[in-house]
Amino acid sequence: MNVTTETLLGRSACAPGIAWFEAAFPDGFAGEWTADHQRWLIASGGARWLGWAWGSGVLPAWSMAGQDWSGADLTGADLTGADLWEADLTGANLTGANLTRAVGLSEPA
């Protein structure tokens, strides 16, 4: 998979999202998009654009169930419907995160 600034422009990405992408991937992204890439993107401040990237067909979506999020900056992340079962959120910054319909935040009854 190849994702470039032109890819994002062709899908009508917003200017802040393009600026973040160019800072994070100065030469674009080429290769297989893995769960580790997705986790890195979320943890490094790109979470606010990930839903758009999935919905626009730019990136595939990976389950993040059981991932280690300790210390991640999830400020403003849209975690609507996220499966957080067994996710380690120790020390994660969730300020302003949307956790609507997120599952796995407590043990099932």
Number of helices: 3
Element pattern in H and E: EHHEH
Percent of residues in helices? 25-40%
Number of separate strands: 2
Write structural notes for this entry.
This protein has 109 residues and is mainly alpha-helical. 34% of the residues lie in helices and 4% in strands. The chain has three helices and two strands, in the order βααβα. It has a two-stranded antiparallel ribbon with strand order 1-2. The radius of gyration is 14 Å and the shape is globular.
Layout: helices, strands, pairs:
Blueprint: E1 2-3, H1 5-10, H2 15-24, E2 29-30, H3 35-55
Antiparallel strand pairs: 1-2
Q: Main traits of this protein?
A:
109 residues; mainly alpha; single chain
Task: Give a short summary of the structure.
This protein has 109 residues and is mostly helical. The chain has three helices and two strands.
